[in-house]
């Protein structure tokens, strides 16, 4: 069974950077598309970014130019580099994965989710 574990969250100052990691175990990451999502208090969960099996990426407009998603299949890990952080980026960040035969498109839904990691942007 696939297990996803997020790490790298914490307290970051506005304008600062941090990198989240999504470590995958139980099955080779190469067979999965992976997405990052976030949920702020009192708000609905929103998609942040995704990366396909072939490495195609998508970003929410709110994070374009500031966040970068990448994957290292050899390490079974997906990363989310977050730069120029803003207080409105404060949220619990989740990674999610879907086993798929589609190499090039991000899925609409994901089957497996991690437990989340808190990112707080505050001075």
Question: What's the helix and strand layout?
Answer:
Layout: E1 3-7, E2 10-12, E3 18-25, E4 32-39, E5 46-51, E6 57-59, E7 67-72, E8 77-82, E9 91-99, E10 112-113, E11 117-121
Parallel strand pairs: 2-11
Antiparallel strand pairs: 1-3, 3-8, 4-5, 4-9, 5-6, 7-8, 9-10, 9-11
Task: Give a verbal description of the structure.
Strand 4 and strand 5 (46-51) form a beta hairpin. This protein starts with a strand and ends with a strand. The protein is built from no helices and eleven strands. The chain has strands at 3-7, 10-12, 18-25, 32-39, 46-51, 57-59, 67-72, 77-82, 91-99, 112-113, 117-121. Strands 2, 4, 5, 6, 9, 10 and 11 form a seven-stranded mixed sheet that branches. A four-stranded antiparallel sheet has the order 1-3-8-7, with no helix packed on it. The protein has 123 residues and is mostly beta strands.
| Poorly predicted ranges | none
The major β-sheet equals: 7 strands, mixed
Helical content class: under 10%
Order of helices and strands: EEEEEEEEEEE
Q: Which of globular, elongated, flat, extended, rod-shaped describes the shape?
A: globular
Mean pLDDT: 97
Taking all Cα atoms into account, the compactness measure Rg is 14 Å
Distance separating the two termini: 40 Å
In short:
The chain has strands spanning 3-7, 10-12, 18-25, 32-39, 46-51, 57-59, 67-72, 77-82, 91-99, 112-113, 117-121. With 123 residues, the protein is an all-beta fold. Strand 7 and strand 8 (77-82) form a beta hairpin.
């Amino acid at each position: 069974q696939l297990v996803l574990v997020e790490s790298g969250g914490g307290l970051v100052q506005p304008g600062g950077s941090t990198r989240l990691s999504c470590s995958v175990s139980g099955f080779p990451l190469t067979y999965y598309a992976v997405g990052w999502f976030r949920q702020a208090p009192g708000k609905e969960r929103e998609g942040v970014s995704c990366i396909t099996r072939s490495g195609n990426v998508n970003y929410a407009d709110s994070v374009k130019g500031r966040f970068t998603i990448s994957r290292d299949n050899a390490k079974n890990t997906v990363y989310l580099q977050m730069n120029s952080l803003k207080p409105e980026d404060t949220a619990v960040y989740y990674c999610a994965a879907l086993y798929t035969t589609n190499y090039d498109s991000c899925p609409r839904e994901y089957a497996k989710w991690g437990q989340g990691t808190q990112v707080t942007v505050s001075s």
